[in-house]
Amino acid sequence: MTSLYSSAYARSLDSQDTLAHFRDRFAFNEPDLIYLDGNSLGRLPLAGQARADEIVARQWGRRLIRSWNEGWFDLPARIGDKLTRLLGTEAGEVIVADSTSVNLFKLVVAALRRQVGRTRILTDDLNFPSDVYILQGAIALLDNGHALEIAPSPDGIHGPIDALQERLDERVALVVLSHTVFKSGYVYDMAAVTAAAHAVGAWVLWDLSHSAGSVPIDLAGAGADLAIGCTYKYLNGGPGAPAFLYVRRDLQDVLANPLSGWMGQHAPFDFALEYTPEPGIRHFLTGTPPVLSLALIEPGLDLLLEAGMDALRTKSIAQTTYLIALWEEVLQRRGYTLKSPRDAACRGSHVSLGHAEGWRINQALIRELNVLPDFRAPDNIRMGIAPIYTTFTELYEAVERLRRAVDDQVFTRYSSQRAIVT
Ligand SMILES: *Cc1c(COP(=O)(O)O)cnc(C)c1O
């Protein structure tokens, strides 16, 4: 068998890549930098730069407050409707607002209040810790005897399907899971988990932060109840861009937004003193949206829609599979372990490698070897692949630098002291 481990082979894969030209539509300023952090902060689409100029200079600078009626007021719903095409659902079921954490809080409180008599909330120990903090905060606020159950993953990589199933009974109000988990990249079977929860009358809230723009999502097909997610990761919406939330149509007027604010009010400019929620998805808005960040979601989203989620997924699987094959051939014997699923069917678009010297290797990569992955404690070097702009050659070169970090003992020049933002 010929070795996969050659730059010529990587270049041949790139030359067959039908999505390769999308890379030219993003900002690249450092040719030698290998950016594998598109799952934390996606790259800047070139059209985003032009859009920012348009919004700042013309819409704000010239049109001033008139811009609210010239498109700003409709932005949360308009971009939400566009997002439904990536999320497998219909216009009117998604809206853009607030942060992922705040949206989680709103939907959890709304759901728990409606699931009267049910006191359990189920999650897993692979979930993003902030999501768990929000659940704890919601339980404390409601002060109504709710308990959080955290099902343990069998191996720290795969979702605890059996442990979740065992805990699912009619006491469960809500199951809250990251669809693609942030460390290992494991992807849940949304339809199967949703069906199991529905069988006992529970609802499921999916956090799609690491799924939106990275794996195909079919909220409608799964009969999903609720979802939230980030726009600044694979969607390339820019730092701190507002998040999205999904509420299935038949639940929209059943659930009440606990952060009832004027943007969710029916006829907000009547300035009535009694809150009357606007029917539909809109009453899940709270206050004035961050227009600049909100509008800048669209250029990245447009690129993903143009490329098509099926083609992106095909390339993503080819790339994560290639990276894992290189790990097996080159990195495994250098102490790197695979901390992501082997089965592409339950793997998202990032691959985590462990190493006993993970933190120092990561420092060597960032400061000296010009690779930007990110680090997730205790020892995960997480490599996010954004198929819309990541090349096979970059993955080959990243593996080459991971090899050198160990073979040339580059990591020994770095301390094991942690930074604040990893
Ligand atoms: C990135 C991420 C978040 C981020 O939430 P913020 O409110 O934007 O800080 C939440 N949940 C998951 C699963 C994430 O991956």
Strand and helix layout:
Blueprint lengths: L6 H9 L18 E2 L10 H15 L14 H13 L6 E4 L2 H15 L5 E5 L4 H14 L4 E5 L9 H7 L4 E7 L11 H10 L3 E5 L11 H4 L3 E4 L13 E5 L1 H4 L38 H5 L1 H11 L1 H23 L5 E2 L11 E5 L3 H10 L3 E2 L1 E3 L3 E5 L7 H16 L15
Parallel strand pairs: 1-11, 3-4, 3-5, 5-6, 6-7
Antiparallel strand pairs: 2-8, 7-8, 9-10, 10-13, 12-13
Helix pairs in contact: 1-14, 2-11, 3-11, 4-5, 12-14
The structure holds pyridoxal-5'-phosphate.
Mind explaining what this structure looks like?
The protein has 422 residues and is an alpha/beta fold. The chain has two domains: 131 residues, Aspartate Aminotransferase, domain 1 (Alpha-Beta Complex), CATH 3.90.1150.10; 256 residues, Aspartate Aminotransferase, domain 2 (3-Layer(aba) Sandwich), CATH 3.40.640.10. It has 14 helices and 13 strands. The strands form three sheets. The chain has a seven-stranded mixed beta sheet with strand order 2-8-7-6-5-3-4, with helices on both faces. Strands 9-10-13-12 form a four-stranded antiparallel beta sheet. A two-stranded parallel ribbon has the order 1-11. α4 crosses α5 and α12 runs parallel beside α14. The radius of gyration is 22 Å and the shape is globular. The model has no long low-confidence stretch (mean pLDDT 96). Pyridoxal-5'-phosphate (PLP) binds next to α4 and α5.
